Amino acid sequence: MKYLKQIDELYAEDFHVVKVPILAEEIRGKDMIMKYSKMIMGANQKSFGLSSTSEYPGSLVNLIEQRALRWIFCGGKGGVGKTTTSCALATALAEDRAQNNLGPVLIISTDPAHNLSDAFKQRISPGGDPTKVLGFENLYAMEIEPQTAAESVLPREMLKDIAKFIPGVDELVSFSQIAKLVKSMEFSAVVFDTAPTGHTLKLLNFPKLFEKVLEQLGALKDRIDPLLQSLGPGLADSTGNPDLFTSANQSIDELKQVVAEVGEQMKDSERTTFVCVAIAEFLSVYETERLVQELFTLEIDSRNIVVNQLLDPEETDKLSLLKARSAMQQKYVTQIEDLYPRSEFHICKVPVRSEEIRGLDLLKSFAAGLTGEQ
Asked: What is the pTM of this model?
């Protein structure tokens, strides 16, 4: 409650703050995702013990109604429900866009630990083409593998050489490939299920980074051009193309054009927005504020915050919820024990605590639990 109040004080005047209760069931599969989707769209809103004077409704309906939106990023600290929120938002968008004949919706995971397959309960091949989501006529899902996408543009050996001078070039090329794919397939909206905050800020900063990359590539080209000219027409790649370097230059020029266009769109609040997902705990609130400030610096619109996994102080039947969550946990604890036998692994089972683990005394207490002293 303390951190939920802080979130309200920080953001209620300027943001749609969406408060979502913790559920007894896992959010997996179409039915549960649709149930969660209705919650973030404002169905059965709860106050969670706080009175709000915000002029902004606590729902994401504003994103559905803004039909010019093309890029919607969902991000925040790890474990707060980014995948669930992005999937639920994508399903709501897909239904609305279908009703208004506005074209298909794509959800893309840029998190190296992809979870879309698990959320939708169907296989989505990493690095492959967009997969149609079962149960929807106009919703597609895609999981990006940066290295694979980068190698589709520049040869592996050239990527390795460039990476020595420019860290993150494979993610940069991957980003541009996403942009080109989205442009060619004409999706009406794209929802990004992003990696945790640090990686996401790096992704969002790519258009600006790309300018610096081009400067370094230009300097590199000036240094090795004399060598290439001395080698003459004999330079060729493994496929027999006569001028590998010229081909790479053309690819870079194409990337420059695409990323420049994406950079413009990302600063357009009519076309791009960022949904911050948080839970009401210190580290998440702290990281959300850092994210909001960084988005402001990058000139990227952000006006929606989803506060997830809330316990309702007015809920009278808390015992049933706890029993259901405990039963769900026991199922996976059993799986863990089957996967990792005690003959090969030390498995530490740590109970949830009533207080935050902050400060030396509580850290020592937690450590004692890990070492079997409690």
From this structure: 0.81
